[in-house]
Design brief:
globular; Arc Repressor Mutant, subunit A; binds zinc ion
Length: 254
């Protein structure tokens, strides 16, 4: 993977435009499929809803999001309605979040968020553009990066160092069982995983997860049986290979 980005031609003044004409050709030349052995991804027609690239072998879809500064708590994404529709149809795209250095025109960080690592509740509808704006009826969305467990995001480039494609593909396969959880229930699974990670312990007790009951209740207001749901999700995470059960109420992160 060559981390040098093509320098945009001087006629491009708008930063978003400059980023697009630089990162898109870079992606065509450098991105590979994390799901199969394809060494490349093909660009989709402009304006394809919610996706920019497709794997010519396995047909996984990808979105590329670029930013001049490291991604914080959220990633500004495409049209809200298209994204929601894609998720509901279980055609959620995988997301490549690319942070680039605008002075040197190089890739600093690239994170892959697999499609099964986020759900509808991680998509935040942005306020519509002002009535005076050219596309005033367009409503964008943000992906809440902070709501996606760290262990469910795959580093492809970290601080200017690319990971090997073998490592990226191995991580993708490790997370792939999450796909078996229906997209509606996946929110719960990922929320419980996020809490387990926040404990910052390799081994933990059920009570430590129960201590976050109020947080989960706030996220899932319609569910009044939070504790049984926590136990069910811990079982789910065990079945998916994220956890091992050591003794009743005692777990270890894999
Ligand atoms: Zn593929």
């Amino acid at each position: 993977m060559d981390l040098t980005l093509p320098v945009p031609a001087p006629q491009y003044k708008n930063p978003t435009q400059k980023a697009r004409v630089s990162t898109e050709p870079w992606a065509v030349a450098n991105l590979y499929c994390p799901n199969c052995s394809s060494p490349r991804l093909d660009p989709l027609k402009p304006n394809t809803p919610a996706s920019d690239f497709v794997c010519p072998l396995c047909e996984e879809r990808f979105q590329l999001k670029s930013g001049r500064s490291p991604f914080g708590a959220r990633i500004a994404d495409a049209a809200y309605s298209k994204m929601v529709e894609a998720i509901r149809k279980d055609q959620t795209p995988n997301i490549f979040a690319l942070h680039y250095d605008m002075k040197k025109w190089t890739v600093s960080n690239l994170t892959l968020i697999p499609r099964f690592a986020y759900s509808l509740k991680d998509i935040f509808k942005r306020p519509p553009l002002s009535p005076a704006a050219e596309r005033h009826d367009w409503v964008g969305c943000d992906i809440l990066l902070g709501a996606i467990p760290r262990s469910a995001r795959i580093p492809v480039v970290s601080d200017g160092l690319p990971a090997s494609s073998v490592a990226v593909r191995r991580e993708f396969q490790r997370l792939k069982p999450l796909h078996r959880v229906k997209s509606k229930a996946r929110g719960w699974t990922l929320d419980v995983l996020l809490i387990v990670e926040s404990l910052q312990k390799r081994e933990f007790h059920l009570d430590e997860v129960y201590a976050h009951e109020a947080e989960l209740r706030a996220l899932h207001v319609l569910n009044r049986h939070v504790k049984p749901k926590i136990r069910q999700q811990l079982q789910q995470l065990r079945d998916l290979g994220f956890l091992t059960f050591l003794a009743p109420g005692h777990y270890r992160l894999s």
